[in-house]
Structures are given as structure tokens and as C-alpha cells.
Design brief:
heterodimer, A: 429 residues, five-stranded mixed β-sheet, four-stranded antiparallel β-sheet, 3 helices, 31% strand, globular, B: mainly alpha, Cytochrome Bc1 Complex, Chain D, domain 2, 2 domains, 55% helix, 0% strand
């Protein structure tokens, strides 16, 4: 049940617009008529503030008709611990690595953050009923508890100097002394709220830099539109006094990023637009090379595809291409630079990306962890599979990873909202 | 219920993982036992004779499960179903879903309605593309309910509840979007048409 509906107020006017879309790939011969395809005019404030509840199912094309976000949802009662463990047997990793279940029953597990005392905080999104959970590890015995309730979509969490930070659409909250107060969390302080209220693509991910500033991405409340000027950007925010800089523009939906320890630059993943085609455009890995870098949305996708409707006279050469194209509809989300000492030496400064997997593609792809090696100057980016096996042979999900985190011992924690579970990947040669 | 208890005990001992997996999968037979308490309102064999109480026979497994989950977590507010759902475990919910999905759907008591109201309803169903989620024969699938041969009063109440926002649904709440454009006369025509479909 999506809280989007609860936030919907007032009326919506649907304007039937016939959108001409350049479609790569084959077309259905099912006889679907253009009038059968859903269209929305998402290029206006009425849409952003009162989107129809199935706003991202709009702008349908014949080629992708039938794809539907709801089809990727887990079943109503989820999976038992035994079922989740059984599915882990199918996950393939490089030699020497193993994966195990760290905690189950972590409802709609999204971004993770580790406290100084080893408490694992986990945010939630569509199916989490506005909660933040904590996994408490007492000598190997783990319990999962709900520590914060009553928020909306608290997907982003981070921990610094004893405090838990939670991003809930248009507010960043700070809970002091969090680990000592798990059963009785203090009333939070709002440390940043100069944010737009839009819910679509408004779910946040938090990444601290070494000075205690946060990088936060703001997505446009549409699939493709000329975005409200407070969105489609990455900001660098000081939670101490609520000031911020806009460091990057021209982005769409980014729910993952981390600071490169070699250069202190912010790297992040980005989900490209939907309803353009089965194999287009590519999702991306990018980095903030200089303040004000513009990656092209909505005018240009993946660095080289002008948008059929929104190019508006701009050329792709006006914008900055990604460091790496990750593939169409793989849905890259949480990512981290590997900084631990457990994995083989070659993994140092590699990026591990959690790909959530497609919804707007007839044949799903992604649903895996990939490893990217890239030089400090952003060149020579290469991608290799790291953990695969969450996509079954009949186009069915067996899990959907969405975040990674390096634990103190150098193992890798993985959040999977489909299975409401946290996994731990460790290396032992 | 005894059968279910034995399976639970077998699982808690360290036995074959395969046996435990079987017990975790939905058990329609166990669902039938749990459903004995439901027949009073929802009818023997899941065909309801009670006003404003839906038939459950032939409803898709996930549809039944989602409604029970919604009643249990108070997403869908109902004075009768709320307390009942609170007492259900995840396993009960899965078993009930499997059981009701296995039952033959209600037989319509009359021949399909060919009156003017049904004709209007048929046009509306086409126009609002109900078949995209509910199937060409309105038999439902996944989280989308079986509409064909459901009680007409239940269908009408559901449409009215979606329109007023009292009920939300799973399809990204697309029922609210669908009903936004419907007036009450439309909803009556749609309910009449769908209730009389074979």
C-alpha cells in the first residue's frame, strides 16, 4: 500500500496528449491502439503537487505497454527467514567470497547506516509505513526493532558523532545520542528543510563527506518534464547551520552516492527516464568534477541521446556525459567505495553498486551488485559483476538489492527491500 | 488445525529444510480449516448471501492476502474485519489466499443481463480499461480482484469507497485515478454489468 495516496489531495486534470516518442527496438503487434495508451501532461505545477496516484505509469508506449511497477512488488506477506536463506544459495560471487543472511524481517529495508556501537540503522520507503528500524547485534544474536515511527518515506539514513540523521522527503532530522536511546528515541531536530515538497522522486539518500557536510540529490516530480527549479540537482548541505550549495544539475532520480576517498569528489548513481525503450537510455554513474556540472536532464540522456520532446534546441555536447553507462533499466541505487581491509587488495577504491532491477522493461535486468574500477581522475571506468542471482529464469525477482555498506571488519552489508532482509558478504581466501 | 500444528513442530526441530519449505508454502487445506469461521458472513464455499459482504470464492490468492494484510495493519479500516485480521498470522493469511483462490467462482443466479444499464456498463468498462488489471474476462489476477460474478452491492460500494478515498488498493492506488472520472450513475452501471458477467 503506497503512502502516495495519502499525500494526494485535491483534484487532478488528466489531459490526453498524444506523445510522439522515438522508440528503439521491436513494437508489439497486439493491436494496441494509441488511444489505449496512458498519457499525462506532467509538465506543470498541478501535476507535481497533485500527481495521479499512478503517475509513473503514464506516458505509455506500445513497446513497453504492460510493464508496471506493481508487478515488481514482493508478495503480501513477504518471505520467511527460511525462504530468504534458501534463495541465497543461488547467489554467485567471485572465488573466496560468501554471502549469508545478516537479519530478516527488516521491513522494506533501504539505506543503511552503522552506529559507533555497531547498531545498524535501516530506512524504508514505499512499504515500510514510515518507519526506521535498527538491527542490534549482541554477540551474534541479532534483534530487529522499530526505532522511529510516524514518518512518511524515510529512505535515507546516516550516522555521525553519535547522531542518527534521517531524510524524509523534504526534511532532514537529527536524533542525538541515538544508540543509547533505541527504545526511546528523542524528539528530533530538523537540521535542513529548505527542500521542495514533491514526493515523486523525492525520496532521499544521505552521504557524509569528511567535514560533516551531506550530499543529497533532488529528483524532478515526473518521468520527463522541464523540472521545477528546486529539483533535478545535487546539493552539498551543512547540517550544522542549514546552508547548502548546488553542486550538480541536470539529474533525474539518484538514490545512491559516496565520496571518493582518493579525491573527496562526490560520485553517484542515476536512474534515467522511462518509456523511451527496452534498451534505452542507459542508467549512469557520475561524479561532481566541478561545481555546477550539468548532466543534461531533461534535454539529453546518457550523454548522447537528445530527448525527443524535451531537447528544446539543446545539444548533448552542451552537457557532461557520465563516467560510465551502466545499462538501461538496471536501476542503480546505493553505492560505496570499498575502503575495508578484508577483501583482496584490488578491491581498494573500487565502487560497489547495488542495482535494484527493472520495472519498465519487458525483460528485467539488474538485480545484482556490480563492481566498478575507475581511476581517480574519472577515466577508464570498467564494470564487472560482483554478486548475481537475484533474477530468476522466468523474469521473476528472487530479491532486489538497493544499498551496500562497509562494516567495521571490512565485510559488505547489503539491503534487499524485496526480501526485507540484510545480507553480509565476506571474503576468506 | 492439528495438521498445521504438527508441521510447525516438525519445522522447529532441525529437520530437512525441504520439509520446512513445504510447510512455509501456502496450504489450501489448512486454509479451509481456518476459513470455517468466515463462512458465517462470506458463505459456505465462499459464495456470499450477505448484503455488502463479498464472495471470496475464486478471488485471486494475492488479492485475498492483500486485503487481509490491509485489514490487519489498519490501512483498510473495517470494524468487523479489523479485529479478525489482527488474530491472523502470515501463515494463516497465505493459507486463506490459497484456499479461496482454489474455490470455483460464484455461479450467477440469473442469465447475463442484457438490459440498457449493462450495455452502458460494458462501454464504461471498455473506456476505463478495467481489463488491463482485472483481465479480459474480469476474473482478476495477482493483487487485482475478480470482478465477474461478484455481488453487485459489493462492487458498487467498492467503487464508491475508491472514489471517496476511503479505500486505496494496491495498484499504486490507480483505482482512485480510475474512479476520479466516474459519477455515481457510471458506477451503478459498471457494477451491474460486472456482477452479471459469466
Amino acid at each position: 500500500m503506497l503512502p502516495l495516496a495519502k499525500l494526494r489531495t485535491g483534484s487532478v486534470t488528466l489531459v490526453a496528449v498524444t506523445a510522439l516518442v522515438a522508440v528503439a527496438g521491436f513494437l508489439f503487434t497486439s493491436g494496441a491502439r494509441t488511444e489505449d495508451l496512458k498519457h499525462y501532461n506532467s509538465n506543470n505545477k498541478q501535476f507535481w503537487t497533485h500527481p495521479p496516484d499512478d503517475w509513473f505509469m503514464g506516458d505509455e508506449t506500445k513497446e513497453l505497454q504492460g510493464t508496471n511497477y506493481v508487478k515488481t512488488q514482493p508478495p503480501p506477506t513477504g518471505f520467511t527467514k527460511e525462504e530468504v536463506e534458501a534463495k541465497l544459495k543461488d547467489i554467485k560471487l567471485p572465488p573466496g567470497f560468501k554471502i549469508e543472511l545478516y537479519a530478516s524481517g527488516v521491513s522494506d529495508a533501504r539505506q543503511m547506516a552503522l552506529g559507533d556501537k555497531g547498531t545498524l540503522f535501516v530506512g524504508s520507503l514505499f512499504l515500510g509505513h514510515g518507519t526506521v528500524q535498527a538491527v542490534v547485534d549482541e554477540g551474534g544474536k541479532r534483534t530487529v526493532k522499530t526505532v522511529i515511527k510516524g514518518l512518511r518515506m524515510p529512505s535515507g539514513v546516516a550516522f555521525r558523532n553519535g547522531a542518527l540523521y534521517v531524510a524524509d522527503i523534504d526534511k532532514i532530522y537529527k536524533y542525538d545520542n541515538a544508540e543509547a536511546n533505541l527504545d526511546n528515541m528523542p524528539k528530533p531536530q530538523i537540521v535542513y528543510d529548505d527542500m521542495p515538497p514533491y514526493v515523486p522522486h523525492g525520496w532521499k539518500y544521505l552521504a557524509f563527506d569528511k567535514n560533516g557536510w551531506l550530499y543529497v540529490a533532488f529528483g524532478p516530480p515526473c518521468n520527463i518534464c522541464l523540472p521545477p527549479t528546486s529539483t533535478s540537482q545535487v546539493r552539498h548541505i551543512d547540517p550544522e547551520n542549514g546552508t547548502a550549495e548546488i553542486v550538480a544539475l541536470g539529474i533525474r532520480n539518484s538514490v545512491g552516492g559516496d565520496v571518493d576517498p582518493r579525491t573527496d569528489r562526490y560520485w553517484f548513481t542515476e536512474n534515467a527516464r522511462d518509456w523511451l525503450g527496452e534498451d534505452t537510455p542507459s542508467d549512469k554513474l557520475e561524479y561532481v568534477s566541478h561545481i555546477g556540472v550539468d548532466f543534461g536532464y531533461p534535454y539529453c540522456h546518457e550523454g548522447d541521446i537528445p530527448d525527443p520532446k524535451f531537447a528544446m534546441g539543446h545539444k548533448c555536447s552542451d552537457f557532461t556525459p557520465p563516467a560510465l553507462k551502466l545499462g538501461a533499466h538496471v536501476a542503480p541505487l546505493g553505492m560505496k567505495f570499498y575502503t575495508g581491509n578484508q577483501f583482496p587488495a584490488g578491491y581498494k577504491d573500487s565502487i560497489i553498486i547495488a542495482e535494484h532491477g527493472s520495472w519498465n522493461r519487458l525483460k528485467y535486468q539488474g538485480a545484482r551488485l556490480v563492481r566498478v574500477t575507475v581511476d581517480a581522475d574519472g577515466k577508464n571506468a570498467k564494470e564487472i559483476d560482483f554478486a548475481t542471482g537475484w533474477l530468476g529464469p522466468n523474469n521473476e525477482y528472487r530479491g532486489r538489492p538497493n544499498d551496500v555498506l562497509i562494516a567495521k571488519d571490512g565485510s559488505l552489508l547489503v539491503a534487499d527491500d524485496y526480501n526485507s532482509a540484510i545480507y553480509r558478504i565476506s571474503y576468506n581466501k | 488445525m492439528i495438521q498445521a500444528r504438527i508441521l510447525r513442530v516438525a519445522c522447529s526441530a532441525i529437520v530437512l529444510l525441504a520439509a520446512c519449505r513445504h510447510a512455509s508454502a501456502a496450504d489450501a487445506a489448512a486454509g479451509k480449516l481456518t476459513a470455517e469461521g468466515c463462512a458465517g458472513c462470506h458463505g459456505a464455499d465462499g459464495v456470499s448471501q450477505t448484503p455488502l459482504t463479498p464472495s471470496l470464492a475464486g478471488e485471486p490468492d494475492y488479492f485475498v492476502q492483500w486485503q487481509l494484510v490491509f485489514f490487519r495493519n489498519d490501512t483498510r479500516k473495517n470494524e468487523v474485519m479489523g479485529p479478525i485480521a489482527q488474530s491472523l498470522t502470515d501463515k494463516d493469511i497465505r493459507n486463506l489466499g490459497a484456499y479461496y483462490a482454489s474455490l470455483p467462482p460464484p455461479k450467477p443466479e440469473t442469465t447475463p443481463a442484457n438490459d440498457a444499464l449493462a450495455t452502458v456498463g460494458s462501454k464504461l468498462a471498455s473506456q476505463h480499461r478495467c481489463n488491463v488489471c482485472h483481465g479480459d474476462d474480469f476474473a482478476g489476477s495477482g493483487p487485482a480482484a475478480r470482478l465477474a460474478d461478484q455481488r453487485e452491492d459489493v462492487l458498487l460500494k467498492a467503487l464508491r469507497d475508491f472514489k471517496s478515498g476511503r479505500r486505496v488498493g494496491t495498484g499504486v492506488a490507480s483505482m482512485a485515478d480510475v474512479t476520479y472520472d466516474l459519477n455515481d450513475a457510471d458506477m451503478q452501471a459498471l457494477s451491474h454489468y460486472l456482477a452479471s458477467r459469466r
